[in-house]
Design goal:
Chain A contains twelve helices and twelve strands. Chain A is globular, with a radius of gyration of 20 Å. By secondary structure, chain A is an alpha/beta fold. Bound molecules: 3-isopropylmalic acid (IPM) (2 copies). Chains A, B: Pathway: Amino-acid biosynthesis; L-leucine biosynthesis; L-leucine from 3-methyl-2-oxobutanoate: step 3/4.
Amino acid sequence: MSAIDLAVIAGDGIGPEVVAEGLKVLDAVTNGDVERTEYDLGARRWNATGETLPDSVLEELRGHDVILLGAIGDPSAPSGLLERELLLRIRFELDHYINLRPSKLLPGVTTPLAESVTAKGIDFVVVREGTEGPYTGNGGALRVGTPHEMATEVSVNSRFGIERTVRDAFERANKRERKKVTLLHKHNVLSYAGHLWRRTVEEVGHEYPDVTHDYAHIDAAMIYMVTDPSRFDVIVTDNLFGDIVTDLAAAVTGGIGLAASGNINPEGAAPSMFEPVHGSAPDIAGQGKADPTATILSTSLLLAHLGREDEARRIEEAVVADLAARGSQPRSTTEIGDAIARRL
Amino acid sequence: MSAIDLAVIAGDGIGPEVVAEGLKVLDAVTNGDVERTEYDLGARRWNATGETLPDSVLEELRGHDVILLGAIGDPSAPSGLLERELLLRIRFELDHYINLRPSKLLPGVTTPLAESVTAKGIDFVVVREGTEGPYTGNGGALRVGTPHEMATEVSVNSRFGIERTVRDAFERANKRERKKVTLLHKHNVLSYAGHLWRRTVEEVGHEYPDVTHDYAHIDAAMIYMVTDPSRFDVIVTDNLFGDIVTDLAAAVTGGIGLAASGNINPEGAAPSMFEPVHGSAPDIAGQGKADPTATILSTSLLLAHLGREDEARRIEEAVVADLAARGSQPRSTTEIGDAIARRL
Ligand SMILES: CC(C)[C@H](C(=O)O)[C@@H](O)C(=O)O
Ligand SMILES: CC(C)[C@H](C(=O)O)[C@@H](O)C(=O)O
């Protein structure tokens, strides 16, 4: 097993703090089998040089095995600029068409839902499409600043893009116990994209006779998520609906401080990127208050992606043990990272 | 006070059952001061004649003071057809640009949220834009059925459409105790529409010095809705985000069985339409199981819209009293309607 060639983008706000703990755990579990290259990207660089993601840096990123990202976004940059030109650009250019976001209610974790709702447990994974939908930046504005201003946003969807995502969802479902795929969309209104998604799920579904599938409108899914989340096993959905539903999923399984994600290029044509679902939280940056657990769990997804299943599992177990033992006493970012590393 | 000239579209599934109770309460509170005209629209008509909404019927609808709608949508019709050609067409043609959806956690109501979350109460109203956004049917499909199929959906937004909606939200906030408007969008990704929404809120906000306003991304709003819903007072948002967030809002305040809505043309250029947020629920249709409370509360919104505030308040009070007295014993649709009517 050769060392992991890891690109690290700590990024903005709490990014560097949580990434430090992720790296601590990654080093510990692999016995230092990680060669890191740190990339200075985000608000600091933009403020200093005006650069978001130079093409040469993007090319360098391609050369690594895998990327760990903290968080991107800062009030010092124009709103949305770093998100679009850095974070989303990496996802698109490296063809991260699977945005994988597992949600599991772990023992000891406080959820905002009543006990009657969570009694049956929560354990599902969202396969969010990562390179299409309303996220492609297509659209425009006319007569800006006048009373007749207009703005459009175009959601772009292809059979190619949807099929590979849906197939990934069925593959994952096939390996799980309940073997169920749920498509979330809004086909009664967004009929062009909606029908393409539905037909694709139908057709790919035929190739997986052991996997059942159903459908829910995205609005109805909101209700299920807070009244009957145990019904979900594998959710597949588009880029925007996936963004929305995974924040809700994170909230009901203990909060954004625990939610891990992978931006995956399954064929390995480019490195995949792992990151916590949370943002840069500039209001608490630098105070040691951020929970690094989401980043630590993201390193577990990272290892699993590299086929290092055993190490991945050990991180997950350490996190589970730490969560079960968490008291009401608040701990610092470093204390949580240390505690998890000690349990490995 | 002349009689209310009411158009009734009972519609599909549980529509007729819940509308019957809404009319019962409306008759009782107004002492029969309602002249109704019933319109046979929905799946039955479509199956019999192939018609969804003939132009002549649309013209007739325009002649009434106000419309009460049950629910639209049935498995016997092509998916989404009745929703688009009947329900959405009415909203668009009658320029129902305000889709008003109040959310209040009432005493005695069971919520899926933990007590710690609901302790501070929930009482907000969503002002959902009703005639633009991704709901206009713009988009298309290419190479349908081939591996190279593509589908687009276009979100259309205008300063005109947004400004009148935002102004309505500020007007409502100005009359409420907390006087706060929260815009929900995703401007870091949907930058064209997002910036138009944000600028409009900023600018209209200047005209309302007593009203504060803030912003949340739609994904972050999911988290707030289940962890800190008391932060919301008046939410303003686009057609699709409003669809999504109001189902979640309904769920956390006791479920879709209680959620009322108004599709409003504030200037009265066309009749406004009131309807429960829930759908036609074909699986329980005809069984007397549907909760008519959402429709009954919609008749309260209807009366308030007509300036009959006193009657509107009496319905709300009757519902509040009924909810507070609800035991665990299930009651039929008619029993609930009767119980509420008795309390008027
Ligand atoms: C920061 C933003 C562009 C991003 C997204 O919308 O994908 C974030 O919300 C996420 O979910 O990873
Ligand atoms: C039935 C459907 C078209 C409708 C919508 O999306 O507006 C419904 O979900 C609603 O919220 O009233």
